[in-house]
Structures are given as structure tokens and as C-alpha cells.
Amino acid sequence: MKNILTIDVEDWYQSSVDVLLRKGYCAECRPIPSLRVVSNTMRLLDILAEFGAKATCFVLGTVAETYPSLVRRITDAGHEVATHGYGHELVYSLDRESFRSDIVLSKKLLEDIVGQEVWGYRAPYFSITPASAWALQVLTESGITFDASMFPIRRGLYGFPGGGRFPHIVGLANGRSLLELPVSTLRLLGQNLPFGGGGYFRLAPYAVIKRALESLNRAKQVAVFYMHPYELDTEELKGPLPAENRRTRLFRWSQRLNREKTESKIRRLLSDFTWTSISDWADGGNGG
Ligand SMILES: [Zn+2]
User: Residue 250, class by beta-carbon neighbours within 10 Å (0-12 exposed, 13-18 middle, 19+ buried)?
Assistant: First the structure.
């Protein structure tokens, strides 16, 4: 069966340290997208092409604005483009109207580039949580039909513990509904354990990831997996920076850990399983 592959198109510091940046914690990090996001994404697209894999790419608004040709390269390669919001804001830190503005802006940016409607959304840091579940209504009012923002685990920055583990339709108080695609987890000893991408994929042995995916597919459940292009980049984050302290050094070290192994793990993942985009899966391209 086909599984769902998603890619959050952004730099590592948008993904990992925006919150810390606001605290003045990461002096070298800027919210401006770097050229690395282009080269890393192109490299990942080349690898996907080798295996005939398709994905839904959640492109950050600032990345689309700075590198519109990258967005066109993604659609030209046959992948689906969706929005990761404009400014990588935590949803639960925004009020309803600020969130609406972020969605409308980022959606229109992408639509103007690719010349077609954008249907999907993933919140920065999976930050649709029980406290910000109101955001789902705003999404449907902004023309979004599917969402991949929920991670049914409990974490400091994110998580929707108790949320559904598999793709499902969410009916909302405004009378609309939305297809929700939670990141895959493994159910073990009454707990949802994360394995479906990002740092969990980078740090866990491939054999563990493979077994978790196989167990989902044996239960006839589609896996929803996520990646970041920067996780292929072994060169950045090397070497200490001026004015770094122990805490920031440790953080950068953890962000780099196992990046050397990521490409070979991705190749095994693409070879062992079949991957497609969310819309292809929802349209019934899931029977293969
Ligand atoms: Zn992100």
C-alpha cells in the first residue's frame, strides 16, 4: 500500500529555534531563509525522483516569498504544494485574526506562484493543540480542506494527546469539516510513541522505524511521515560560534546528530515502502 510522505520546506532554525531566537537565544540565526533551503530541497527532490516517490511539501511563506522558483520546481517534479504558514508562528501564540492573516497570506503567496489552489496546511511545530483547536475552523473558512498539524503525543511545545492516530474527518462547530492527517505514532503499552519523521527518524535505528511502519501497514493503516530538507545537510552547524554557551552548543549538537546517516536512511525508507502525496492518497491513489 502507499504511505503519505510530507516535507516541511524550511531552514533548520525556522523549524527548531524560532522560539529561542525570540528570546535572544540564537544570535547567528535569522528568520530569513538561506540558500541552503534551496539546495537541500533540490537534493531531497532528486532522491525522491530516483525512487518515484511523491510528497506533499508544506512550504513556509517566507521561503516561497524569497525563492518562488523553488516552489515551481516542487510542482514541476510532480509533488503537491501546501502551506506551512507564513512566519512560522506557534498557532497557540496567535489570536484568531492573526492566525487567519497568516494563513490567507501564505496560501495566496503559493497560489500566485503555482497558479492553482492550495488545499493543505501544517502548523509550525505541530502547534494545533487542544488549546488551539479553534484554528481548525479558521482553516476551513480560509479554503483549507486538509490539515496535518496534529501529533498525538504529549510534548512541551506541541502535541495533541488523545487525538486520533490515523487520518480522519473532523466535523466542526461551524458546520464544515476537514481531513486531518496526524503524524504516525506507534501504540505501545498504552502510550503513543513518536517515530514518524524529523528528529525521531534521524535518531532511531532504521530497523525500529521499518518495523513500526510495517505494523501500521499490516493493520491496513496508512503511515503519515514527515521530513525536513536540512536534515540532509551535514555541513551546517559544524564548529562553535562566538558567544555560544553550553546550552546552545548542546542544542546545535543535538540538531546535527546523525545527519550523516540521514540520506542512507531516507533511501532505505523510499526503497522499502511506497510514498505519495496527501491529495493523491485522498483521491484514491492508495490502492497500490
Ligand atoms: Zn516548520
Answer: exposed
Residue of 113, 112, 107, 100 whose CA lies nearest to 74: 113
Structure confidence by residue, pLDDT tens digits, 140-161: 999 999 999 999 998 877 889 8
Helices and strands: H and E segment counts in the chain = 12, 11
Closest CA to 54 of 2, 117, 107, 122: 2
Residues 218-237: tens digit of each pLDDT? 999 999 999 999 999 887 76
Indicate whether 24 pLDDT > 70: no
3 state SS of 49: helix
Which residue shows C-alpha cell 490502492? 287
HSE of 144, CA atoms in CB hemisphere, 13 A: 35
Q: What is the pLDDT of residues 51-107, one digit of tens each?
A: 999 999 999 999 999 999 999 999 999 999 999 999 888 899 899 999 999 999 999
3-state secondary structure of 219: coil
The Cα 72–Cα 128 span in angstroms is 28
Spacing, Cα 287 to ligand 1 middle (Å): 30
Write the DSSP symbol of residue 204. S
Q: Ligand 1: distance of its center to the CA of 84 in Å?
A: 7
Domains and CATH numbers, the chain: 2-282 (3.20.20.370)
Distance 228 CA to ligand 1 centre (A): 8
* Centre of ligand 1 from the C-alpha of residue 104, in Å: 17
User: What sections of 142-231 are H helices per DSSP?
Assistant: 198-203, 206-218
Rounded distance from Cα 284 to ligand 1 centre (Å): 28
Say how many Å lie between the CA of residue 16 and the centre of ligand 1.
8
Considering the chain, what percentage of its residues have pLDDT values greater than 70? Answer: 89
